[in-house]
Design brief:
- By secondary structure, this protein is an alpha/beta fold.
- It folds into three domains: 3-89, Arc Repressor Mutant, subunit A; 93-163 and 268-289, D-Maltodextrin-Binding Protein, domain 2 (3-Layer(aba) Sandwich), CATH 3.40.190; 165-267, D-Maltodextrin-Binding Protein, domain 2 (3-Layer(aba) Sandwich), CATH 3.40.190.
- The chain has nine helices and ten strands.
- Strands 1, 2, 3, 4, 5, 6, 7, 8, 9 and 10 form a ten-stranded mixed β-sheet that branches.
- The longest helix is centred in the first third of the chain and has 29 residues, at 61-89.
- The protein starts with a helix and ends with a helix.
- It holds the Pfam family LysR_substrate.
- This is DNA-binding transcriptional LysR family regulator.
- Keywords: DNA-binding, Transcription, Transcription regulation.
- Residues 1-60 form the HTH lysR-type domain.
């Protein structure tokens, strides 16, 4: 039944008389009495006591029960309407993102935290996965936006929204015993005999550069994450090769030096599936992201 009937009944119960309820609802008293009768017929139960001489309405047992339950029904509908409206407007819902593990810290700090302040009702579902799994999740609709630090599989299926280049640095302990780490700018040749810790994302790029410049590196460890590579440096067991964004990690314990290799960088890409409509939440995030880029 139309919830307006329940709203009218609750107004009658609170007002104490049909006449006062009709005045509050701005409808004719006979019309409101008719709506009350229809509701009673629909529920097959009397809702108000009709004893003569009673000036203020009293609810029957069924009326009291309906009053309690009607409050819940109306509250539920109001909340549902509000939630649907928020989702249509993109002010609530779930932002689903697949990203390379190495980009998560930057992405959360630079974009999701400020976005969350503007849209506090939006939930965030982040999947930190490999490039292959990113591709699968985006194509399957499990995520709407991808943040990748390497080319996605089947690049023709994706639209690149933005790319950022990030140079690689060498990180070493402030008590490092390797001479190369004490220079303001380090060449690949200077690293020839220095034990190195590489993150898995940076390793192919760095090793390709070494091959190009005919330098055989001394690789002590290839780590799944950049943070793990930095621990090797912090503990003074190796120098780590990491992207510039990671320079805040262990900044009090690790010294960062530039590498004198102009083409040595990682490239992050923000992508969506080509020709696939985005939810309003995702659209709002991309608008927010573009404004953030414009301000920096």
């Amino acid at each position: 039944m139309d919830l307006d009937y329940y709203r009218d009944f609750m107004t009658i119960a609170r007002a104490g008389t049909i006449a006062e309820a009709a005045r509050q609802l701005r409808i004719a008293q006979p019309a409101l009495s008719h709506r009350l009768k229809q509701l009673e017929e629909h529920l097959n139960a009397p809702l108000i006591k009709t004893d003569r001489g009673v000036r203020k309405i009293e609810l029957t047992e069924a009326g009291e029960y309906l009053y309690e339950r009607a409050q819940y029904l109306i509250s539920t509908e109001d909340n549902l309407k509000r939630e649907v409206t928020h989702r249509v407007q993109g002010t609530a819902g779930i932002l689903k993102v697949s990203l390379s593990p190495s980009t998560a810290m930057m992405f959360i700090r630079d974009y999701l935290v400020p976005f969350s302040r503007t849209y506090p009702q939006v939930q965030h579902r982040l999947n930190e996965v490999t490039i292959n799994e990113q591709t699968n999740q985006l194509l399957a609709g499990e995520s709407e936006i991808g943040v990748a630090n390497a080319p996605l599989v089947h690049p023709d299926l994706f639209q690149i929204l933005h790319t950022e280049r990030e140079r690689l640095l060498i990180a070493s302990s402030r008590q490092s015993r390797w001479n190369a780490s004490r220079q303001p700018i380090v060449s690949l040749e200077a690293l020839r005999h220095t034990p190195l810790a590489l993150s898995r994302g940076c390793a192919p790029i760095f090793l390709d550069a070494c091959h190009k410049y005919e330098m055989t590196p001394s690789v002590l460890s290839i780590c799944t994450t950049r943070t793990a590579a930095l621990i090797w440096a912090r503990e003074n067991r190796a120098c780590a090769i990491v992207p510039e964004q990671e320079a805040e990690n262990f900044s009090n314990e690790v010294y960062y030096t530039a590498l004198n290799v102009p083409d040595l960088y990682v490239q992050k890409s923000f992508v969506i599936v080509r020709d696939r409509p985005l939810t309003k939440v995702a659209q709002n995030f991309l608008e927010f992201y573009n404004l953030t880029l414009a301000e920096t």
